[in-house]
Amino acid sequence: MDLSYILNHLGEDRARHYGAVVPPVYQTSMFCFETVAAMRAALADELKTPFYTRGNNPTVELLRTKLAALEGAEDCLVFGSGSGAIAAGVLALVAAGDHVLCVAKPYSWTRVLVRDWLPRFGIRVDFVDGGAVADYAALVTAQTKLIVLESPNSLTFEQQDLSAIAEMARARGIVTLCDNSYATPLLQTPLALGIDLVAHSGTKYLNGHSDALVGVLAGSAALIRKVFRGPYMTFGAVLGPHEAWLALRGLRTLPLRLARIAQTTRAVADFLRTHEQVETLYEAAAPTVSRFGLNAGELAGSSGLISITLRGGPAAADRFCDALQRFLIACSWGGYESLAFPIAGLSVSENYQATAARYATLVRLSIGLEEPDLLIADLAQALARSANGSDHD
Ligand SMILES: *Cc1c(COP(=O)(O)O)cnc(C)c1O
Prior knowledge:
- It is a single chain.
- The protein starts with a helix and ends in a 6-residue tail after the last helix.
- It contains 14 helices and twelve strands.
- The protein has helices spanning about 5-10, 35-45, 60-70, 80-95, 110-115, 135, 160-170, 185, 220-235, 240-250, 255-275, 315-325, 355-360, 370-385, and strands at about 75-80, 100-105, 125-130, 145-150, 175-180, 195-200, 215-220, 280, 305-310, 330, 340, 360-365.
- It is of the alpha/beta class.
- The chain binds pyridoxal-5'-phosphate.
- Pyridoxal-5'-phosphate binds near residues 82 and 83.
């Protein structure tokens, strides 16, 4: 299906809404019926029919339809956050006595879910430090039910051999889930590589405007129904109609935003790569991490995240961020605005101490839609200040 058809027309059904060009927001918690028979008919399939908004809402369903088409999935559910989506996907697939494999450096709350919560319910977990299928196959047991992947991750951009891991897992009846937030379906479609479930923090590029939290889970109709009947309806971490409408609006321009962001990011990376203040540049294209994704063709390109470590240690990283004028100091990423996220700043929270200790001098940059020259000039002046520790304004 062609991309602009999905973004502009698929599922819009304008005749149902007085020809409204933009879909209305069905800001309602439930739907009423003329007769009991009509109610019964709706309730027969709560995933597909408006009855109660936790199950189905037309605005939310339109977003689901477009996201499923983008990922090449039979169906898709959307959640109140990416973490809600990942937790629902994981919890739908495991039970006491099962074993789970998870990539070694997933998103921080994915790590908390897998490392701290699953063992409370009698599920054994191993983290896999590597991207090759052999790294995973070596730890598979007869009890392994799920492999959690994230390729590339959003801090240091390690990639996994998705097609080979999916094939190995499928042959053993193991379900695979991959967080695809970095790439978006425009740069990578894990389902086409054999992965069973794709998760997104739609908060990032899919919505793209830093004004809503959105989670996505896409896969086969059978798997999505399993998640729907289980954690989706019981935990209820669903997306509201208004947020769904915002995400639909954001999604219209995804290809334009991503192309511009990727182009600017290449220019910024070229500038940082040779800068004397920069100790290490982390990017999805780096040869150390890209052999499974970008180089193998599973990932079609880089998006807009890069990380750097600076000479001069954590203090230099602080000085660098403080001196930035165009970049905002903030977590998250994937919006229209450029951000700098100093990982050392996480050390004050017990949830992030391991990450903060491992990456004490790392600053992640999320590149936005500003003029590339302005961003590079801002980085240049901030790097100069980070080098001159004791200098004042
Ligand atoms: C932000 C993020 C999440 C979590 O999504 P939320 O919408 O913040 O809950 C999951 N995975 C990755 C890679 C992320 O960057």
